[in-house]
């Protein structure tokens, strides 16, 4: 384990060393934009000291370095975890079974099996469902005039989407939503880690039952596809399938929900950009990409070094934990012009919101469909959005965003007249 710093520890200024990236409160209490600017400029490979008895870790903040490390699954592994909580605990119990924490040949084979479930046919059905749901839910929300966009729309679309993909019965969606919300982040600063642990276990138990049901009675859904799949002639075990359902529901729910909430919040504060969207002077595709860059709901992912790696003027030692900060890379001024300006027409826009390389997000297409349909329905049915209260931000060292968004919509009557078409 490394005790080195890329730059001598004496040179690390107080405003950097005082920031504790493990503490979920940090993201709510500090000006993190200033912190990331400073790291990119002066400490692109920064050794975050150990806190609360947990090991220290490397913090990589520049776009080019983050990309290079995401791509490198030879010198870095995901099998000791890919998020801070597991990396700092020394491992992930789903390693070698769950796609995101599996490497090498097994990862490739498993990804190919999962990709079958993400075939254009399977996805076109789900994408059509997303459009219908988004239009219906957003038209209803605009007609009501006021409400919490997070609870009424943004919580429902992603879970319905990934639930539909997995074949989770609609009656169970709200139960699962409660569990996914408390397993990755929390509305409260002081949620006990055991609560998140229990929520994660309940999700696993839920999927164990569903896998048993689908083995007995296959349907046209991802779980049934996985139960019928083999790698090298060996069928996937129940545990393999359960872990991957878990990863789809966690990976697919909160990230998309946070992006939608952030997009609406941002549009309510950026009237010029809203006008461009409403008038159609930017494409839905470019607006979607910028919404994704702007939100960057997954702030970071991580790896463990397998060998010594020289980079950015320092040495990552074999065994060290390395964290890759999408949140900083997506604002890197050497890649994005005016990165702190929202520009729905931004082009090129090679954001790193979905990661990069062998573990590139499996659900990126679906997430894009969700955000695009939300923006389309919003510009069709509403003539303007106003905040009616302060949104509540989540507490997490992995995800960023808001869990409530009280808003008022001005209706677009001509658009609403087309809602049931
Ligand atoms: C992987 C972000 C939506 C399923 C990833 C990774 C990122 C990411 C950054 C890379 C993790 C790593 O390198 O360790 C996001 C964001 C989303 C989103 C920002 C929404 C805005 C989804 C959806 C699904 C999904 C909708 C499924 C329906 C997955 C899976 C992986 C993954 C299974 C692991 C892929 C692998 O390891 O090969 N996601 N994701 N994600 N995502 Fe997403």
UniProtKB/TrEMBL annotation:
GO MF, one annotated term: iron ion binding
Family as reported in the entry's similarity comment: Belongs to the cytochrome P450 family.
GO biological process: one example: cholesterol catabolic process
Keyword field contains Glycoprotein: no
InterPro entries the UniProt entry points to: Cyt_P450, Cyt_P450_B, Cyt_P450_CS, Cyt_P450_sf
Name assigned to this protein: Cytochrome P450
Keyword presence, Nucleus: no
Pfam families tied to this protein: p450 (PF00067)
Keywords associated with the record: Heme, Iron, Metal-binding, Monooxygenase, Oxidoreductase
PANTHER family per record: BIOTIN BIOSYNTHESIS CYTOCHROME P450 (PTHR46696:SF4), P450, PUTATIVE (EUROFUNG)-RELATED (PTHR46696)
